[in-house]
């Protein structure tokens, strides 16, 4: 069983404390991508750098400079 991507987006909307963070939405269910929206491109780039330094795949597209797309790897939980 893995964590649902929609649950991850909902959790991010509650827990994310990065400066300028506005909201998180699901970019792609199949590719497990979340879109983190920021108030300006500087805060978005800082967030992207922080995610990448932690080993995550994060990118900013040229036409959406305030949105960081982050791949959420599938984490399997075993039933106890």
- Count the strands? 4
> What is the molecular shape?
globular
Oligomer: single chain
Using only C-alpha atoms, the radius of gyration works out to 13 Å
- State the share of residues found in helices, binned by percent: 25-40%
The computed structural class is alpha+beta
Record the strand order, biggest sheet. 1-2-4-3
| H-E string | HEEHEE
How many helix segments?
2
Strand content: 25-35%
Keywords for this entry:
four-stranded antiparallel beta sheet, alpha+beta, about 80 residues, 4 strands, 2 helices
In summary, what is this structure?
By secondary structure, the protein is of the alpha+beta class. The chain contains 2 helices and 4 strands, in the order αββαββ.
Question: Topology, pairings included?
Answer:
Elements: H1 5-15, E1 21-28, E2 33-38, H2 41-53, E3 58-61, E4 64-71
Can you give a write-up of this model?
This protein is α+β, with helices and mostly antiparallel strands and 80 residues long. 30% of the residues lie in helices and 32% in strands. It is built from 2 helices and 4 strands; from the N terminus they run αββαββ. A 4-stranded antiparallel β-sheet has the order 1-2-4-3, covered by helices on one side. The longest helix has 13 residues, at 41-53. The chain is globular, with a radius of gyration of 13 Å. The model has no long low-confidence stretch (mean pLDDT 92).
